Amino acid sequence: xxxxxxxxxxxxxxxxxxxxxxxxxxxxxxxxxxxxxxxxxxxxxxxxxxxxxxxxxxxxxxxxxxxxxxxxxxxxxxxxxxxxxxxxxxxxxxxxxxxxxxxxxxxxxxxxxxxxxxxxxxxxxxxxxxxxxxxxxxxxxxxxxxxxxxxxxxxxxxxxxxxxxxxxxxxxxxxxxxxxxxxxxxxxxxxxxxxxxxxxxxxxxxxxxxxxxxxxxxxxxxxxxxxxxxxxxxxxxxxxxxxxxxxxxxxxxxxxxxxxxxxxxxxxxxxxxxxxxxxxxxxxxxxxxxxxxxxxxxxxxxxxxxxxxxxxxxxxxxxxxxxxxxxxxxxxxxxxxxxxxxxxxxxxxxxxxxxxxxxxxxxxxxxxxxxxxxxxxxxxxxxxxxxxxxxxxxxxxxxxxxxxxxxxxxxxxxxxxxxxxxxxxxxxxxxxxxxxxxxxxxxxxxxxxxxxxxxxxxxxxxxxxxxxxxxxxxx
Length: 475
Known about the structure:
It is built from 12 helices and 18 strands. It has helices at 7-17, 48-51, 110-124, 194-206, 233-253, 297-317, 323-326, 373-389, 420-429, 432-435, 442-462, 466-472, and strands spanning 22-28, 34-40, 53-56, 70-75, 81-82, 90-98, 129-141, 143-148, 153-158, 211-216, 223-228, 231-232, 257-259, 273-281, 284-285, 339-341, 348-350, 362-364.
């Protein structure tokens, strides 16, 4: 019987048989952006998967200072795909980051945190696999301009689909523009982005992603969604970064631009990233049972953990100042920390499309696509596991349209933090559940809070806002 080829051998064989000229090594900074360094194939061999490649990490956001900047990346052979946006034949490999002196994985590498989260899950004996299915919404724009200087600040985004352009002279203006909050599922010509989304789907599938559906989203001005099938935690995070890269570059090839900002348009729906998750053991789903909405006791405790820790979770799953312009009442964003079946106004929904136990899952609706998925998925799982371990009761479900409830009815329902600053303060006070199994470390939590405070919150607080001139110029 022939010996099965190793993942490394498969990569080397693919390189040889497809005349690959370059190998692109991708890795992750702490806020959540892919970084890369590219090597000619002459510098790439079997030893690359053991010795790795040295590089200067001093300028990577959230990493250590320049006096500790020598770093090592080692590619994961299981992450091979061909990059269709590079002219020369090029493969892409996702890498783990290591300390060169000790050859230990770098504690601030988000991919390492996700790997530790998977290992912690195994160590608990509760389950052996956690699946995540993110739904990352995004906007496709035709033009974007922005600038901030000493004496000016502005942004301008535009889309031929934007309802705000219904009166513009477009030589001619054909008038098919989705009304605000009415962009969900219209056919062409109102939905003008069908061909572009199909091209995105083809590129995603060619890269190995399992795509379930694509459609226009609720907002006017080019909001879209493409659904990727659920995967185990690490693979789901890897694929979300591939997803963003392919979506953005497909748009750019078509002279369009994509943003995953949570709230780029005032007065219309923002972009969320509803995250579905479920626990499995030995191939069997653990969230199906005889409880509320067909859930097991374990699933309800998992929900209890997420609801309890949600204020601190949001510092990771909703990590930008812009995130909290989406998390406001009136735009289908879940701001009340409750759970319910079928109910999209609750922060946790139990989908009821199927009675199949394998389909039973929990949807956390607060997160948005500005998050770092390695950190977000790990943190959500850690909160859920804390709920299971400590048997945290989620309370009674809220099977009402929360958006239509009166304030008096909601007085006992907790709500999400109102700002990134408030969420970070919650994280500062409540993060012990993230430290279990050394998944997150105090250093990672402190670095995250400091980075977000120094690089985002404080600069935003100091910069005059354009709308302030409308409010205050004549004081």
